[in-house]
Amino acid sequence: MANLSKSKPTSFARPNPSLSFSIACDGTKRQKVECPHPAIHEGKCLLCESAVDDDHSVAFGFLHPSFRLSYVFADKMRELSTAAALGLKKLHLVLDLDHTLLHTIRLFNLTPGEEDRLIPEAEWNAVGGPEGQGDVFLTGTEAGEGSITKLRPFVREFLREAHEMFELTVYTMGGRVYSSRMTKLLDPDGLYFSDRVIAREDCTVRGRKSLDMVLAKESNILIMDDTETVWPDHAANLIAIEPFYFFSHGSKKRCVRPSFGHDGEQDCVLATTLQVLKEIHWRYFDSEPGIKGRDVREVVQQVQSQVRNISGDQASPGDAL
Question: What class of enzyme is it (predicted)?
Answer without folding.
Answer: hydrolase
